[in-house]
Specification:
Elements (H helix, E strand, L loop, with lengths): L3 H14 L9 H11 L10 H21 L9 H5 L1 H4 L4 H15 L6 E2 L1 H12 L8 H5 L7 E2 H13 L19
Antiparallel strand pairs: 1-2
Helix pairs in contact: 2-3, 3-6, 6-9
Length: about 180
């Protein structure tokens, strides 16, 4: 069962994914999400990375449809999505594997690191609009070297999807969680 913190995080995610703002998620929302990610500089149409991004975004829909669309109507409402909270800890390796594609898509210059500006683009792409990230990157960059390495990003990504601890920095990876300070 989702805690209040997880609920706030998932409501934010739900809103970001609900492209047509109709109150539920369906395959079209994930197609729209994939289209947003194809707008990133490294995700060029027809590229191997674009194929991976499409497979990742549509794979998220397939996972939701298979595990939480309990009435089989091809739509996932917020309550059904919240049921995913109990399943996510059992999918740690799957979640970690998705970090690779997201990292590659966001690492605009291909230097193997995510800079503050690349992180901002991740958050804006995630939400489909500009989001105030203020000092979020400073909280994510725990070693203070000015970037996120692939291993750092992967751990933050896992925290974002699985953690119920508001103090873990990964919970801010995709922007501030509304209703938390």
């Amino acid at each position: 069962m989702a805690s209040d913190f997880q609920r706030a995080k998932l409501v934010s995610m739900f809103r970001a994914f609900d492209a047509d703002d109709n109150g539920y998620l369906d395959q079209r929302d994930f197609q729209a999400l994939a289209a947003r990610w194809r707008g990133l500089p490294r995700v060029r149409p027809g590229s191997e990375l674009a194929g991976r991004v499409d497979a990742l975004m549509l794979g998220w829909w397939d996972l939701l449809a298979a595990h939480v669309d309990t009435n089989g109507d091809g739509r996932v409402d917020l309550d059904e999505l919240l049921a995913m909270v109990d399943l996510l800890p059992t999918l740690r390796e799957v979640v970690a594997a998705t970090a690779e594609t997201v990292f590659d898509a966001v690492d605009e210059n291909g230097d193997g690191r995510i800079s503050p500006s690349e992180h901002r683009r991740l958050v804006d792409t995630w939400h489909g609009e500009s989001v105030d990230v203020a000092d979020v990157f400073d909280r994510l960059d725990r070693d203070g070297d000015g970037h996120l390495s692939r291993p750092e990003f992967t751990e933050l990504w896992i925290q974002f999807w699985i953690s119920d601890d508001p103090a873990e920095p990964g919970n801010q990876l995709c922007g501030p969680v509304p209703g938390t300070a």
